[in-house]
Each structure stands twice: as C-alpha cells, then as structure tokens.
Amino acid sequence: MAGPVWRMVVDLADIRHGRWISDTGTSGWPGSPHYKDQHGLWKSGEYVPMVSDWDDIRRTDVGPWSCSRSKEDSLKGLLASCLLACAMGCSGSVADPPYFDWCAADAPPDDACYAAKRDPLSTNVTLAREIAIKQMEEHPADKVIWNWEESVMMLGISELYRVTGDTAFRDYYRDWIDHHIDKGYFMGTSDSCSPAALAALLYRELGDAKYLTVVEDALHYLAEVASRTEEGGISHLGDAPVVTLWVDSLFMFGNVLMKHGELADDPDAIREFSDQFAIFTDLLQSDTGFYRHAHAWPGQDDDVYWGRGNGWVAAAGAEYLRVLRDRGETDGVAEAAVGLLMDDVKAAQDPQTGLWWTVLNRPGETYLETSATALFSYALSRLYRYGHADDTALRVIADAMDGIRSRIARDDQDRPVIEGVSGPTGVGSFANYAAVKTIDDVPFGIGVVILALVESSGLPGPLIVDR
C-alpha cells in the first residue's frame, strides 16, 4: 500500500482538537510494543486525537498512542526510520507482520516480542501485579493445595511472569510445584492433573528433570488411567465407574497437552488435544454455538448453557489456535467451532455492564458473573492477536474489561479484591446454576482475571469500532 505514513489535520486556531495518524507509531521503532497500534486506523483513513497541551498530556492515561518513553526510544525510532528509508526508497514497501502479536512477517513472536505486545507498563498489567502480589503475601506457596482452582491461579501468575520478567512470580509457582513434588501429589481426575501445565513451563525454563516427571505422570494418567467414552473422549472423573465428559476438562488437561506439546515439540500431545476438542465439540456444542456442561450426566437441563463452562472452552480453543498458528498449522474443525461459539458469546454480552450472565441464554434470571467474563475477554483477546477475530472484537473486549474492573473492589489496606465469581459448580438443572453463590478472591477467579488483564493489555483501542 502506498500513501503518506504520517497525516495530520489541525485548525491553528484550535490546536487542542487536532487529529493525526502515523502508520508506525510515535517512535517509529519496530521494537516498540506500540509500533503497529495505529496501522489499522491509518489504513482505513481514520485519525486519533492529537494531545499537544501539557496539562492534557499529564491528565491523559497512557494508551496505545503514547509518546515514546525515553530519548533512547526516540533515537532508536529515528535511526530505524532512516535505515528503512535508505533501504526502501520513497516508493518501496515492507511486508507487515500477518498477525497483531507477531513482530516479524515470517516468524512467530519470541519471548521479547510476546512481552512487548502486552505492554508490561500498562495499567492493566500493573493491576494484575497488585492482585498477584496480594495473593502471594496472604498464601505462601507451601500452603497452597494441589488442585484445579489453585493451578488456574498459578497459570495466570505464569503469564504475568512471562510479560513482566519479574522472577518473584516464577518463584512462587516453582515453590508450589516443588512443595508438592516433595510432599507427593495425586492425579486421578482432569482437575488434579492440571498443575502439570506449570511443571511443563518450569521444565522448559529450568531444565530440571523433576518437572518433566510431573508432566509425564499427567500424560500417563491421560493415556493409560482415565476412562474414555466410546468416541474416545477423556472422562472428567478419571477411572471412576461413571464415564462422563465435562467442558472444564478441555482447559484443565488441555493446557497440559498444549504446554508440553508446544514447548517440547511433541506433535502427539497437540494431536491428542485436537482429537479431544473435536470429540467434545461433537457431543456438547449446540447448533448455535454454546456448549452444554456435560455429556452422559444425569439431571442436566440440555437447554442451559453455563457461562464459565463456555469460558473454559473459549479459552482452551483460543490457546490451541494460537499454538497451531505459531507452528504454521491449521485445524478447520476447531476454527469453525470456536468461531461459532464466539459469535454466540458476543451476542450474549450484557450491553449495560459488559459482563455475561452465569447462565448465558437466560439473561436477567440469574446474575452477572466475573470469571466467565474474564475467560471470554481472554479468549477474544488471544483470538484477535492471532488473526482469528476481527476489529469488532475490540469493543467487546473493552466493555468486558470495564465490567471486570467494576468487580475489583479495595480492602481496608487499598488492595484489590475480586468480587462476583461463582463458586465451584457441578452439573445440573437451571436452578442448580442459579443457586451457586459468588465468592470473593477465589483462586480460579484470581487466575482468570489476571489472564484477562494481561492478554487485553496493549491491544488497539476500540475508538471507532462498532460491534
């Protein structure tokens, strides 16, 4: 595409209301997390406000179109622009990265790119840090039990470590895993094998064989211990007599398979998740897109779609599609299923609050719920970053994050408290889901809110995007 890289419209009698746009951001430095934030708007001929008054600048929250943070950044931008001009000439072009999260046209993001794309200095990441630090202070790692609720919290903290590089976060989930390796752990359900996802991360970074042993124990459980349906679906309850599929499993054992499959380059693990996603979809997804909570479980209302359960599917599906994207692979079945689900999800968002109801298809009859909202925001953010969601997702994400922030109160020490998370939820009737009480600062609620805060950080603002 040819055209002026930088455009500005200013009334010199009213400079404060000027508008501008720059294809390569303020700094022009390709390594900046905001380098391509304005590209979509530039391409469509749009503009953003030009803040030029110092009082306005000091009052303005740092957003996607901020000035570079240092002279070094500006110099890097100037040098990069000069080199680019010399290499291209006036009419040349450079291939854009194909997806928002990629920093290069021909390679998936490395660790530095991945972190920069999530803006480690943003207000979202700062809030996520506050939430994590409070939990770490109140709950020492050796006091945190081995279970799905806690592993979801640790997974959120692991993403915070990946983006900030603060080893205190890594050390917290490392100490948790180490404690249970020493004490002994049990894997007998989808839920209780979920901590192995953290062990896969630790083995990749630290190389200690004890972490690989945890992963191998989980893989052995999934392949040899857990019962399966006649279609091959892994039973949520392990080798219990009742063989049943619960949508939660796609997230709980799914992250083990995907983390190990990606980090150890084990295509069999990724293929196993692919097979499970297809089986669960065939047995549980409705014609419109939502998933039922369980297969082969008595007492379930088939026309009730549980919010957090669909959030688990959305988050697992989005992560799976990211893994495939970075590996240069595709899965048409999963792409279609996730796309259908997210269409239903976007349509069900409460327009006043940005939240979702705990029973998605019965708005106004139950309550608006925080953890489902966080999972949907995380999933949509990840899908957008890797080219599986378009710009219409940005408004949905922004509204969801506003809703989530409205559910974060402050205690008497001015520390964050996450409210409005439904407690652990079994399969049942509509009345069963409606009766589940909400809990403050429950571990899995903490984990998914951290995931949403981190994953939505650094995305373009939905300033002109309509649903």
TL;DR of this structure?
The chain has helices at residues 39-43, 54-59, 71-88, 111-116, 123-138, 148-164, 167-183, 190-193, 196-206, 209-225, 248-263, 267-284, 307-327, 332-348, 370-385, 392-406, 430-435, 443-456; strands at residues 6-9, 19-22, 48-49, 245-246, 294-295, 356-357, 368-369, 408-410, 416-418, 421-422, 438-439.
Description:
The protein is mainly alpha-helical and 467 residues long. The protein folds into two domains: 6-88, no CATH class; 111-456, Glycosyltransferase, CATH 1.50.10. The protein contains 18 helices and eleven strands. The strands form five sheets. The protein has a three-stranded antiparallel sheet with strand order 1-2-3. Helix 6 (148-164) packs antiparallel against helix 7 (167-183), helix 9 (196-206) runs parallel beside helix 11 (248-263) and helix 13 (307-327) crosses helix 14 (332-348). The longest helix has 21 residues, at 307-327. Mean pLDDT is 89; it is low at 57-92 and 463-467.
